[in-house]
Amino acid sequence: MHSASPRSAARPIASALLAFVAGSAVQLAQERLFDGRVYLALLLGATVALVLTWRSRRALRWRPLALLLACAVVGFGQTGWRASVFQSHGLAVELEGRDLRVRGIVDAMPQSGQAGTRFRLQVEDARTAVDGQAVPLPALIYLGWYPGSATAPPLGAADDFAELKRPPQPLRAGERWQMTVRLRAPHGNRNPHGFDYELWLWEQGLQATGYVRSGSQDAAAQPLGQTGRRPVELARQGVRDRIFDRVAERQTAGLIAALVVGDQNAIERADWDLFRATGVAHLMSISGLHVSMFAWLAGALVGMAWRRSAWLCLRWPAPHAALLGGMVLALAYAVFSGWGVPAQRTVWMLATAGLLRLSGRRWPWPAVWSLVCAVVVAVDPWSLTQAGFWLSFVAVGVLFASDLGDTAARATPAAAVVARLRAALREQALITMALTPLTLVLFGQVSVVALVANALAIPWVTLVITPLAMLGVVAAPLWLLAATAVDALGIFLQWLAQWPFATLAVARSPWWVGASGLLGGMLLAMGLPWTLRLAGLPLLLPLLLWQSPRPAVGEFDLLAADIGQGNAVLVRTAGHALLYDAGPRYSLDSDAGHRVLVPLLRALGVRLDRLLLSHRDSDHTGGALSVLAMQPQAELLSSIEGEHVLQSVRTVQRCQAGQRWNWDGVEFSVLHPQPADYAGHPRPNALSCVLRIASQSGTPPRVALLVGDIEAPQEHALVASGAALRADLLLVPHHGSRSSSSGEFLDAVAPRLALVQAGYRNRFGHPAPAPMQRYRERGIVVIDSPHCGAALWRSVQPQQVHCERTQSARYWQHVAP
Description:
The chain is an alpha/beta fold and 817 residues long. Among the domains are: 6-87; 93-229, no CATH class; 557-807, Ribonuclease Z/Hydroxyacylglutathione hydrolase-like (Metallo-beta-lactamase, Chain A), CATH 3.60.15.
């Protein structure tokens, strides 16, 4: 009897591993979790079935299928059970918004910024601030701390706090503090194709967010001493502080800090934009490439040192020592750099492949690839939702499948260098070719100059900047050399970014279009005959030419974006688009335009014809600069004063009653303010531009009314003027404040539906109970962004609103009470 070959034995193992991954992926698609005991029963039952089926000696035809099914159920069960256990320790609803006195340890290096500091706190004890009653809290919470007597995050802050730059008082990793905090459940903005902040918190193990109460009526926060329990984080913080002390230019210092200690928040927003435009963003944080290169370099050094000792070589082969040493040192590097999700993923990949090699097994590459993938998913099932996971594994699979071989193995030294350079360029070209469709599917844009940029940036960052930055830990003057190298790279990237069509952006497409593009990219990159490779080109065309569906002539769509406390409504006709307000400004570095609206417009393939800013308040104009920078052709219509900063950016046309225009059979009318309203010094809310939008194809026409922050006096004036106010959809005035939504105004508008754009648990209490009662009395259905997320309304379906939170619900997403 002949034993099975390693290759034949590896095939069923690879299939079983991929079935495990598929089972985990199915669980991630659940909208709501089952009871945890259901998952546990599935996990235990499938594990027993797997063992019995695997050990069975009977050659049954159903055995392979049973193995695959058992592995899939194991993946489904273990992922669901872990999720249910984690979710059971979440923040109780009754504790949201209450003042709590908390004692805990600063769990990681704090992130400081312009408005304050954000940090993670490991909770040791929690009690109500009023009566000292003990309450249960999640083990790890995410806090913002604002200087002075601030008692709440800045206006419009999207996720409890703004982008931060400077701590209100020193905070060090490992310190124990006692402080008064106000918490809420993890709640982020939900927009089509937008960033899933709630999933990010889930991945980080954070089950509550909030801020430190530092007002005059609050008990002062008390430092209780250094515990020494976070030595790595404390060392990281010390190195980061030394970098900023040594390197004068903060922008450059931030990049060096990101490469040394993994502090990605230290990189300026403008730099991130540049790196994305040139396709080198993966190099500017502790990514899989950095960990892999560090492992290779560390392994080479360990191997060299090992070979210098005959005694060591006799006891263990130098290649094995180099492999193990590289893995161990890469683990240490990943831990010191913050143990981020990409670094963790790479460590598990390297460890799995390395241990398989040390065992002496020589599996075919599909089996190795499947094993590494399954190990990563077993450790972190939610990595399947991360773009970096797919980019990493597709790149590795392409390199395996292309089978480049060692072209320089038998060459002369000079020819070997040339051959290796050619091989490296070919690898980069293949990876770029394969990942371009995937990047378009995941992000909606790709850098056209990425191949050129990476050809220089990869060796420059990995062989020059990163080593200098790391060696600066023991020889600080080297950070100045690293800064010079960073500046030189920046000049090169700026030059590339200025090329015409440096980036290609496409509208986000449905899954079948994306699948076609991915298949086309894989065919082009695979080591196949060119006749087969060229078949990939037509498969790419649907992805490149896809256009987001638009309304028919005479109809319009209205998308109320989820931007926190503020207004931002996108109106689209068959061939035109208008954005009504641009959401809040979160800080000097961050706004709703950059965070939400620019990605949303890009994902939908929208080219704005007009930006209408209702009035000057920052929760309506905060994102305007970012939007106008992306949409240079957009006209600006607003009631802002002549001294406003936007007046120097774009010519502003004053909005006033009587203005009308028609786009594709849809009538737009400005109803307020009157020209006389600009006299004197009226409050900004009183000058809110009121926009009426009416379709012309239906009978009766369907109407939406967008009213900004008008209040009762302006509502009365509109009713008294006899303006055409009746509408199917109303954007609730002033986010539902007590001073708006008067009874006479609601009777005049008589909408079926009303939309409230307000932040979850915002400090203004919007929408207020009294006006909401008036809506209920009139049978008007009110839909708010905390419960709905982004709300899509179509004039062809005037009684329906599509909510992003329900259309793409997942169990880790918060459900507002």
